Amino acid sequence: MTVLHDVDGEKPIYIQIADWLENAIIDGTLQVDEKVYSQYQLAELFTINPATAGKGLTILLEAELVYKKRGLGMFVAPDAQEKLRAKRKEQTLLKIVQDLLNEASLLNIGTDELNQIIEKERKQRKGDQT
Prior knowledge:
Blueprint: H1 13-26, H2 39-46, H3 50-62, E1 66-69, E2 73-76, H4 80-106, H5 111-129
Antiparallel strand pairs: 1-2
């Protein structure tokens, strides 16, 4: 059984569904023109109401990350991965960098020290992948 990360948190479940599907598109689990889970499949997978799953799918549909084929379901749009990468770079990464710089400033950490921290983490992650 697949579990959502923040069921008791502040993020609504339908947003978590949309995020989960977006991640699957970004990492290539869901490929261009591949059929996306139906709201009923998502409801069963996450043990949630089908309407909640449907709301998550609607987010992707409205963002034109998926398209409908009448009677067949929803499929990954050809440019979905590029759109998601641009969105995450512009919104998510920018916010993270702003938060990081604010925290570094508060702790009086300069650019060199901050870069050392980042490089240390990068090297550790590379070591974990081998």
